[in-house]
Every structure is written in C-alpha cells, then in structure tokens.
Amino acid sequence: NIGLLLEAFALLPEGSRLGARLVLAGSSGPPASFWNRADALGLLDRIEYVARPTRDALVRLYQRASAFALPSDEEGLGVVLLEAMACGVPVVSTRSGGPDGIITDGHDGFLVALDDAGQMADRLARVLRDQELNASMGRAARRTIEAQYSETVAGAAFVDVWDRLLAKAGKT
Question: Is the pTM of this model over 0.85?
C-alpha cells in the first residue's frame, strides 16, 4: 500500500520531515498515480526510487535508513522487514499478518492499524525524533533477528522437523 506510506510521509510533523527522505526500492517503481499524488503534496523532491538494487546496495540502503516502513495490506513472512531489522533499523509496519508475529509492538518496532496513515506517521515521527528510542529499538530489532531467524536457529528448526518426519516414517 504505497499510497498509505506516501500519506504517512506527508503527515509527518515538519520537524520530523525536515531532512528526511522517503527512499523506495524494488523491481518495479510506484505507479504514475503515486508520483502525481507526491507532486500534489509537494513532496517530489523528498522522494527517491532505487530500481533493482543489488544485494550490497540494498544492505547499504537499510544501514543508512533512520527507519523502515512496511505499509502492506496483507503480508506473509515479510522478508524485507527481517532484512531491515537484521540491519538494526527500527521498523513500523501495518498489522498485515506476518509482521504481527515478528514485531513486538513498542519493543523492536511498531505495529499500526491497516490504512491508518496518521498512526503510521505518528510512529515514524517517534523513531525519527527520539534518537534514544531509535537506537534502542534498532538494537532490539537486531536481537530479535539473531534470536529467532539466524541461520543457526532456522537450521535447528529445519533439522528438528526433518528428524520428526524421519522418526514418523520409521514407525509406519
């Protein structure tokens, strides 16, 4: 829901938006309607789109980000959310399914209601203006990834399932 993100960016208090840029990245850019709305809001000069970034370029984007926002209407695992958190970036996401099971609201990120640009803007403003909150939430996000999604943890879960399947197959 790229439109929600644009509206939230427009709603940021001037103090939070001052110096902030909305950086988007992906395989296909926002539609013309997004750019038209951004122009109508006077935000074109504050928005950047990075087409098909390499893995290294994407990591650099995350590492330079003050916050990461995921405005999805519906989301599964949310790999981009995991990537941002792994880079120690505070995240703000809609309650769109997958993020609800990843983020502990107020600890390692914020969860906001679907289609609530005001609430998304409020949470983004918090992490943009409060450097202590930004840093602590970023550290907590990184710890969440290490504790729940690292190769060791994911590998152990895979091996556990594999062992249970083999044991079950041996009983039949």
Answer: yes
